[in-house]
Amino acid sequence: MPHEGPLDLVRQHPEIAVDLLQGTPGITLPGRAAVSLAPTDMSAAVPVQYLADMVVLISDAATGDPVLAVIIEPQLRDSEIKRYSWPVYVTTARRIARCPAAVLVVLCPDPAEAAKCRQLIRTGHPGFDLAPVVIDSGGPPGRDGTRGPYLTAFAASMGGIDMETEPGARRVLDAIASPEVSEADRLRMTAIILTLASDAARHLLEAMMTTSEYEKTFVEKIHDQGIAEGEARGKAEGIAEGEARGKAEAVLKLLDARRLAPSEEQRQQVASCTDAAQLDLWFDRAITAGTAAEVFAN
After folding, report:
1. Cα–Cα distance list, 60 to 37, 63, 144 (Å)
2. What does the pLDDT look like over 115-159, one tens digit per residue?
3. What backbone torsions phi and psi does residue 42 show, to the nearest 5 degrees?
4. What is the DSSP letter of 145?
5. C-alpha torsion 48→53→59→65, nearest 10
6. Closest by alpha carbon to 193, among 180, 182, 207, 206?
7. How many CB atoms lie within 10 A of CB 118?
8. 254 with 222: CB under 8 angstroms?
């Protein structure tokens, strides 16, 4: 699990934090919650700086009063130093948000390492022991695909859905293709999932994305969006130039959506190309290529 993958999904849809805490003993959530990202700087007036990876603030939607600060920390393995910094995060987040409660959620996909992260952190103060809420690949909420597209994508990012199998890949693609997901979010979610997926899962997902069932959502939408934006920019340049500009925009959007990381020279090569057939070839290659070099190979 790359460090930022699940965090990117929470950043995109902070309401995931509420789902992660549903049913957690001792955690009370408002009936109607307003959810927003909060500052991640957990530094106090001391020489050491503490930066949490993400803080989500849950407020009462009716009153606007803060109810719970949620610190979300990805952790690939147990870390001794975190056992000293995590209690700081909880108390400082509560102070900064002027919130009655704060909770630490640790994202650790490896169940064995997750068990270590769950160990009680004793601070020495009577009654002040920290038991982190730990999510691992064995039971992330949303893995059954019934609790909304964003939580399903989050479960996949944690390894809770086997994307190397067709049923698992289909569950994830159906979530991303959901009408509840905006076009902008769909592009970002697709890029995140393809980046996190194993080689086998990525090949399966990409193959399914080009089938008639999903092509209109994952390929044609990127192509059509790029064409529309490019033609709008190219109106003053004439019909042929506008069409080429649109195709170039589509190629660049697809390269970015799949995180193929083209070089600046390759981006300029696309942007300056006026050969529609060449642009179509690059677009078709970008659907399945593993690297930018494969797209631009002679």
Report:
1. 15, 6, 29
2. 999 999 998 998 899 999 999 998 888 888 888 999 999 999 999
3. -100, 20
4. S
5. 10
6. 206
7. 15
8. yes
